[in-house]
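Incident log, support desk, overnight shift.

02:14 A customer reports that sequence design results differ from what the structure should imply. Their input is reproduced verbatim below. On-call engineer (initials T.W.) acknowledged and began investigating.
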């Protein structure tokens, strides 16, 4: 069966929830760590506290049937904080090639090459620059895979996520140009292409144009055109930022021709809210306040805020909660909650949190069922 749902492992609990759902549903899922979440040892790993090799080992040990496919998400230059001080593009490209090489060594099956970002503080790079870097990285990754004798699929993206959809003509021309460069390098075509599908996460909701009922019909027409362009080129359309959509909303995207979609920060929010509920139920107000302060003080919510935000401090903390689960104080607070549950004969904390995340993953699978299954299968695409 073709995997459709990409799960961003925003916490270790999310990884275990994905394992649980895959086993229960007997269906493959994609695990899509970003470089900030998991990376090679030379970059200090990521905020999950795993290196690439450790992450892969954790999954494989618990997934004997191979239902979880390891996929790199946003694996381009300047996508890890360790590269913040790198000024030269050539050095940044060399750095992320080493990250991709670690992915290959760990047995990742899909590499997302995203060249949309420039050096921190400079904003997105021009489209032509992003496309040229993508082709170069793609060829270098293909050479690394060939040298190892491994087969790997690719996903490409060369622009940051936006609230609207791509202009169909501009998208078609840009895709053709990039595919020609990839072909000229002697590399295989990518499995997925990321396009703007009117889905965009900010704060605690989806703010993309698709989520606006008044704009949905037109957005879906645009998405259908983008999907047709991809399928005519023999590649598949991947939608990012599909968090906070209902199962029916996601099914509409799949029916419009989207072949696969990613969800990530929503799972961290689900786990954070479940932890706060436990702290409330166990009458641990000090621990609750400590966690909210810890998350707020991390400042990790800033990248998710709208310019016109009216978010409260608590909402900002909820957005950033998953970034601090692995900190010393975050672990202390979780241990306090776990102890309180244990003394009252309740289910273990990790079970409670895992099931809260699992429910959201299962909602994504319900969307696939409502859409009638993977659109890629209907268009004759091969499996990973």
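02:41 Re-run completed on a clean worker. Output:
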């Amino acid at each position: 069966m073709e995997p459709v749902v990409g799960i961003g492992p925003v916490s270790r609990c999310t990884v275990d929830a994905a394992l649980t759902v895959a086993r229960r549903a007997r269906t493959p899922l994609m695990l899509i760590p970003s470089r900030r979440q998991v990376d090679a040892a030379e970059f200090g790993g990521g905020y999950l506290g795993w290196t690439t090799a450790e992450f892969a080992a954790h999954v494989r040990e618990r997934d004997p049937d191979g239902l979880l496919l390891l996929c790199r998400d946003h694996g381009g230059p300047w996508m890890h904080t360790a590269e913040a001080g790198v000024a030269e593009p050539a050095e940044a490209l060399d750095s992320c090639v080493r990250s991709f090489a670690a992915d290959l060594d760990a047995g990742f099956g899909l590499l997302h090459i995203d060249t949309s970002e420039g050096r921190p503080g400079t904003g997105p790079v021009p489209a032509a620059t992003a496309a040229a870097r993508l082709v170069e990285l793609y060829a270098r990754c293909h050479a690394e895979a060939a040298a190892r004798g491994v087969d790997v699929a690719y996903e490409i993206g060369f622009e940051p996520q936006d609230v609207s959809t791509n202009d169909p003509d501009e998208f078609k021309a840009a895709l053709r140009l990039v595919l020609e460069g990839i072909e000229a390098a002697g590399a295989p075509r990518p499995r997925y292409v990321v396009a703007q599908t009117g889905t965009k996460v900010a704060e605690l909701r989806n703010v993309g144009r698709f989520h606006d009922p008044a704009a949905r019909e037109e957005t879906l027409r645009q998405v259908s055109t983008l999907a047709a362009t991809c399928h005519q080129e023999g590649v598949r359309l991947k939608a990012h930022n599909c968090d906070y959509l209902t199962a029916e909303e996601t099914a509409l995207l799949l029916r419009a021709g989207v072949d696969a979609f990613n969800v990530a920060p929503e799972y961290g929010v689900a786990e954070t809210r479940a932890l706060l509920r436990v702290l409330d139920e166990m009458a641990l107000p000090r621990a609750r306040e400590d966690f909210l302060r810890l998350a707020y003080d991390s400042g990790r919510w800033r990248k998710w805020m709208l310019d016109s935000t009216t978010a409260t401090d608590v909402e900002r903390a909820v957005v950033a909660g998953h970034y601090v689960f692995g900190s010393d104080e975050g672990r202390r607070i979780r241990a306090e909650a776990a102890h309180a549950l244990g003394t009252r004969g309740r289910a273990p904390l990790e079970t409670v949190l895992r099931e809260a995340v699992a429910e959201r993953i299962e909602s994504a699978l319900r969307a696939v069922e409502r859409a009638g299954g993977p659109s890629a299968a209907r268009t004759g695409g091969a499996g990973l």
